[in-house]
Amino acid sequence: MSRQETARPHDRVFLSNYLREIEIGVLESEYGVTQRLRFDIALEVEPASEPIGDDPDRVVSYVTLIEAIEQVANGPRMKLVESFAERLAAIALADRRARRVHVRIEKLDHLEHGAAFGIEIVRDRGELPAPS
């Protein structure tokens, strides 16, 4: 059997439909105003090797994902949701238990008729430089 076949499946910690108003964008009309962004993040983590015993310090919390969003949102202004997603992924993967992250960011206020657009990325541990 290959290493991949014998590896345990990863657990997923997720955050969905997290809304945040952020100043982001390339267009002149996007400077000085905030736009609603919707975040969906799933962080694949190594399962605990021993029983967690209801100890919150033994698991990766969804709060970690919220804190990562807030860290990027409160940092330097970004033009691209792609850049936001990359930075968010790097922060989420900094936890030694993290293996892969799925990040989806949608801009909700830019198009007519309630349409949304955005980016969805999947990154594995080791693919991104450490967050700055």
- How many beta-strand segments? 4
Low-confidence stretches: 1-5
**Main sheet attributes: strand count, strand direction, barrel closure:** 4 strands, antiparallel
Could you tell me how far the N terminus lies from the C terminus, measured between alpha carbons in angstroms? 39 Å
How many separate domains make up the residues?
A: 1
Detailed description of the structure:
The chain has 132 residues and is an alpha+beta fold. It has one domain (10-124): GTP cyclohydrolase I, C-terminal domain/NADPH-dependent 7-cyano-7-deazaguanine reductase, N-terminal domain (GTP Cyclohydrolase I, domain 2, 2-Layer Sandwich), CATH 3.30.1130.10. The protein is 21% helix and 31% strand. The chain has helices spanning 3-6, 62-73, 81-92, and strands at residues 11-22, 35-45, 98-107, 117-124. The protein has a four-stranded antiparallel sheet, covered by helices on one side. Helix 2 crosses helix 3 (81-92). Mean pLDDT is 87; it is low at 1-5.
Task: Provide a short characterization of the protein structure.
This protein is an alpha+beta fold and 132 residues long.
Task: Present the secondary structure layout.
Elements: H1 3-6, E1 11-22, E2 35-45, H2 62-73, H3 81-92, E3 98-107, E4 117-124
Antiparallel strand pairs: 1-2, 2-3, 3-4
Helix pairs in contact: 2-3
